[in-house]
Specification:
Chain lengths: 403, 389
């Protein structure tokens, strides 16, 4: 038997304690957890240990090696994929290899989005999150080949959703995707998502107000709009160069940074041809990390940056002078963010990720202020949120069947 | 239904890599054409150009009478098969086959007709109301095939569709796809790296290497009359045994002999009469090949001694209906150019013979092996092209 493991900061379970010489489907190990995984071609099981929750997938060695390499590459490119930890091979002549990934904490399988109360509002951003994910992957030259609801995990992101790639068995990495490859990938995504929604409908769990045809048609629309904004060449008059700035600002607002632009001018004409050349998602994530060291999701980061700016304005008004941005961010971290999170009792912190907790605290504060018609501090809002709202939320660190 | 024509197709990537060189292929209506070759030969690139997933650098691609170089994939009326064969557990077989037509807004009665027709062809009529969990592995695969069938494309394109399946299911599905394609009569282009898959499925097989078409022909012709060293070695399992040797005609010019290292094989006059071009190679080095089944344990064969060779047996694989005997001879082996093949170059060549199971040859024996010289293949050692005439 051979274990090929990635060295990580976070500990992994001792795989040798697992019944590796048996087919994965036959395991009866005490650490096995039933987990909602949707439709998959291969056997997938989850093992819980003191170090967390791990997904094990049994598949032929060639595919396991390929997916291991692809997931590692995509992670190095900062794309949202599950963390791959290793491959177990040479188990027995009749047994396939096992690919190990770490379960994505605080992720919501798609079925929870349709079957659990209280999160119906998130469904609306499901399509957006998949469109953004596909655009990110396509910009990086990755043809997924099997985008589906089952192959995607979703995390709350400040009232919206962010999507993660779970399965890359059919993926291909290219220098650049052709329009035909992107179109086929989108076509496959449409068909798979449509099938996934019809399957939910057949199981009686699709809310009646959701029309699967409308959902997948909106995916094509949203992806098309996003791709156009990200890549289309734009022609502007020399005197209207501010339109380029406006386009870059729109890209930032969508969460993308433009690291490089291509500008060409005609020989004699007054036109400038402009096209974003190197675009990378995570504009607000990087900005927040630069200022505070916090690594959050895109919308969470955007929300926190807004809060930092508001806090800076409040400080400036109180002190009668502006503070440097870095100082404001440092003070916000120490005086606002950390106290707000520390106010949440430890036993409730597995209900939401820290970024989402803070977002919901801010929402709670807004509601309190509106109700009381008075300013409420973030820390006071946090205490009230921990008392009145959070206890009724379910733990989402690792949702398991029956939660 | 449609013909597919590739005319002087080239693919050059932005980094300068020339993946396909002047590819000419005429795929007939209803034909099952297999593209085969080792890794990096360009077979998937060629298929993707047909599908519209790769842009064509130059040349002309036609589906039917229409030039499709600039036509978007969805407008080419082709179906890429088996991109995803996951079945939905709560949906019936009927819905699993037909749900894509709902998205395409196909009228209900037409949808029903197509699903039932596909189910009939796939012998799933009795299973239409069942759920995937109630089906066998093979039936599930057929449901997935049904999804492609109901779309009624002009052509199916399949890129290694069986590569993710286990060996047993792969063999079963190989037969099912080939049989289904013949029943449907839909033009099909199928890519595989597995020459056995290619030979057993295709009406014709196109062999590619380094982006160049090596030969396109029926499976039997590829096997019997390979046009070059690469095809000779690539088609067939175990591979054709290839050697460098010198042909010497006798003084009458009627017969001759061929060197195999320090040994010689007599070449009967009938062979030289059938292939007059060999006369030009008198005294010259050339490459020649012997198929494993064109050798036999000499104790079970009546050929004269001058058509027998000797070698030490290094491996015996008893397969029941036959035995594969590996033995060494002091001849120069030939690199066929297959990047996936394992070739041990040196002064000793390992020869593989497919012998009658009654052979009593054992490991480390010094074996006497009869060669069916009339079945030898000859190739020019410079051009590596076959000498058949």
């Amino acid at each position: 038997m051979r274990l090929q493991l990635v060295t990580t900061h976070d500990p992994q379970p001792d795989y040798l304690d697992l019944p590796l010489l048996q087919p994965l489907a036959d395991w009866t190990h005490s650490g096995l957890v039933e987990f909602p995984i949707g439709v998959h071609r291969h056997v997938v099981r989850f093992v819980e240990s003191e170090h967390g929750l791990f997904a094990l997938k049994e598949l032929p060695g060639r595919l396991a090696d390929r997916e291991f390499a692809l997931l590692r590459h995509l992670a190095e490119e900062n794309l949202p994929v599950v963390e791959v930890l290793g491959v177990i091979s040479e188990r027995d002549s009749d047994l396939d290899d096992i690919l190990i990934t770490r379960h994505l904490e605080f992720s919501l399988p798609f079925r929870f989005l349709f079957t659990r109360s209280g999160i119906s509002s998130l469904r609306e951003s499901l399509v957006d999150s998949i469109a953004v994910l596909l655009a990110q992957l396509h910009l990086a030259g990755f043809f997924w080949g099997d985008c589906s609801l089952s192959n995607t995990l979703f995390r709350r992101d400040a009232g919206a959703l962010a999507a993660w790639v779970v399965d890359t068995e059919t993926g291909e990495l290219h220098d650049q995707l052709t329009p035909g490859q992107r179109e086929l990938d989108l076509d496959i995504a449409q068909m798979n998502i449509f099938g996934g929604l019809l399957d939910l409908e057949a199981s009686g769990r699709l809310p009646p107000d959701i029309d699967p045809v409308e959902v997948v048609e909106s995916l094509t629309r949203r992806y098309g709009q996003l791709w156009e904004e990200l890549t289309a060449e734009q022609s502007v008059e020399v005197a209207q160069r501010h339109l380029i700035d406006a386009r870059l600002a729109r890209l930032n607002e969508l969460g993308f940074d433009t690291a490089e632009v291509s500008i060409t001018t005609g020989g004699s004409g007054p036109q400038i041809q402009f096209r974003p050349a190197v675009v990378e998602v995570g504009h607000h994530v990087r900005e927040l990390e630069r200022l505070t060291g916090l690594r959050m999701l895109e919308n969470q980061a955007r929300r926190m940056l807004n809060d930092i700016r508001s806090y800076g304005a409040w400080l400036a008004k109180r002190d009668g002078r502006d503070q440097p941005e870095a100082v404001v961010a440092y003070r916000w971290l120490n005086e606002i963010f950390e106290p707000a999170i520390e106010t949440i009792p430890q036993e409730l912190r597995d209900r939401r990720s820290p970024g989402e907790l803070f977002h919901e605290i801010l929402l709670h504060r807004d509601a309190l202020q509106s109700k009381l018609q008075a300013d409420v501090s973030v820390q006071a809002a946090s205490a009230d949120y921990a008392l009145e709202s959070l206890p009724s939320s379910k733990r989402e660190r690792s949702l398991i069947e029956g939660d | 239904m449609a013909t597919i024509t590739l005319e002087k197709i080239n693919k050059v990537y932005p980094n300068g890599f020339h993946a396909i060189h002047d590819l000419d292929l005429d795929i007939a209506d209803t034909e099952f054409l297999v593209l085969v070759g080792p890794s990096g030969c360009g077979k998937s690139t060629a298929l993707r150009m047909v599908a519209g997933l790769e842009e064509i650098t130059n040349g002309e691609m036609r589906i039917g009478d229409r030039i499709v170089n600039e036509v978007e994939p969805k407008d080419r009326d082709i179906a890429m098969v088996f991109q995803n064969y996951a079945l939905y557990p709560h949906m019936s077989v009927y819905d699993n086959i037909g749900f894509a037509l709902k998205l395409a807004k196909t009228p209900k009665d037409e949808t029903d007709r197509r699903i039932r027709e596909a189910a009939r062809i796939l012998e799933l009529d009795e299973q239409l109301d069942r759920k995937p969990a109630q089906l066998s592995g093979g039936q599930r695969q057929r449901v997935a095939m049904g999804r492609a069938i109901v779309r009624q494309p002009a052509a199916f394109l399949m890129d290694e569709p069986l590569s993710n399946l286990d060996a047993k299911l792969r063999v079963q599905m190989r037969a099912e796809i080939a049989s289904l394609q013949r029943e449907l009569g839909v033009t099909t282009v199928y890519v595989t790296h597995d020459q056995v898959e290619a030979m057993t499925m295709g009406d014709r097989v196109a062999v590619l290497k380094d982006g160049f078409l090596q030969q396109v022909d029926t499976p039997q012709n590829l096997y019997d009359r390979p046009q070059n060293v690469f095809v000779a070695a690539f088609i067939g399992s175990p591979s054709m045994n290839l050697f460098e040797g010198t042909l010497t005609l006798d003084s009458s010019g009627q017969g001759g002999s061929l060197t195999l290292g320090s040994q010689a094989i007599s070449i009967p006059s009938e062979i030289l009469a059938a292939r007059p071009a060999l006369a030009a190679y008198d005294g010259q080095p050339l490459i020649y090949g012997i198929r494993p089944e064109d050798m036999e344990d000499a104790s079970l064969d009546s050929r004269p001694d001058d058509q027998c060779i000797h070698g030490e047996v290094s491996l015996v694989e008893a397969l029941g209906a036959e035995i594969l005997v590996h033995f060494g001879v002091d001849a120069v082996p030939v690199d066929s150019g297959d990047p996936d093949a394992v070739v041990e170059l040196g002064d000793t060549a390992v020869v593989v013979g497919r012998f009658n199971p009654r052979s009593r040859i054992r490991l480390r024996d010094s074996a006497k092996v009869a060669v069916h010289a009339e079945r030898l293949s000859f190739f020019d050692s410079s051009t590596r092209l076959a000498i058949w005439d």
